[in-house]
Amino acid sequence: MVKTRGLILRNWEALLWLGVCAMLPMAGAQCAHGQAAPDAAKNPPATDDPAITMFPHSDTSRYWVSGQDNIIFQYHPSFEASYSGPNSLVSHAQDATSNVSTLFLGYELTDTTEVFVDVEEASGGGLSDGLGLAGFTNLDVVRNPLLSKAPYLARGMIRQMIRLSSENVEAVRGPFALATRVPVRRLELRAGKFGMADFFDLNGVGSDSHFQFMNWTIDNNGAYDYAADTRGYTFGVMAEYYDRNWAFRFAESLMPKVANGIDLVWNLRRARAENFELELHPSFGGKRNTSIRLLSFVNHANMGVYRTAVENFLAGKTPRPEITAHPLQTTVKYGFGVNLEQDLFHHLRAYGRWGWNEGQHESYAYTEVDNTVEMGADWAGYGWHREQDKAGVTFVTNGICADHQHYLELGGLGFLLGDGGLNYGREKIVESYYTAHLWRGFFVGPDLQHINNPGYNRDRGPVWVPGFRFHLEF
User: Fold this and answer.
1) What is the pTM of this model?
2) Which distant-in-sequence residues (6+ apart) come within 8 Å of 315 by Cβ?
3) Structural domains in the chain plus CATH codes
């Protein structure tokens, strides 16, 4: 009982300490603004100050040219671990630095047709090469350290708008959308290469690893095993219907050949993913903005079954539980998510997510989470006369189903986890950050994460992960 009470007190002390740190303005900052999606495009920073990019962007040109460079340094001190396995977070002190650069190009063919091409380069790496945590600490880390560091095509897509009303509204111009006025009611079609997280499960408080939180299961719904190669992209088609206070989107996309693989399956009868999201904007809280997003996905892929892998091991068919030890097959995994966002007062915003997937089938494309709950807030720096600065704090708790637990307990390996054993406990993460605007497109800021039961293992951790971010917006 004493040990349990001590753990509870340490968790609450960590949460309180992180929250205080996140809300303090950065001393000495001078006035003058995913794999990760182009986060400023998804959630652009406040635009009261026009000089938040290195170079100005036209609102009238048919062309769009912009870029980002995001450098993240992270470190963790040594922590207690009763044992370690092949996929464990290394228990001795270590540090890592990641760097992701993206060039965004767009062209407006007509008033309703646009094309986009993005080129990206990812270098450096993450703590323990991205292993050992379901909620990994840096969304910029490519999950396969053996991939080439050469630039690659991240996105190449076409956007087609179909007008369904004569009334127009103002729209924000950015790397994924160039029109500054769009119909209130419209149908948008996209096709090509993109990231599912570019358009699904977005949240103004917790979706942007280049200006906000960095953790995988905070910027995205950890239980959303969305279709993607190891860099975070796929090929697909998407349709979105927009009305005045709601929208609905659907996408059909390709799945990887193997879990966390770089190659995609082009035979839709063998592998594919359906994604659905209903977005609502009810008028709760007077004039304050409210967003509710209801998500569902269905994956068809060559996924193993945790219970079958355990049964084969117990029957002596494999030396340890092996989720990939099965003939070529197509199995189905599905899940749901709820995404909430609410403006409060004085530039304070709150958000929350809930996610669940059936968990019987192999974690395949994003991370090893079967259920998740998170909540947090951010606060813009108007109160201390730093309008482009922002602070945030959040908490997430992740879990896995019983079959997944048993698989890891007996020594099974996932594409992220595998300590050689497991004393199961929910993985609980608190993160806070401060992002300071120094000059034009140059932003910096500290980040701090506290992780209890890393990899769902009570026999390891807790671990602190401080970090620092340098961001350039061109």
Assistant:
1) 0.88
2) none
3) 2-473 (2.40.160.180)
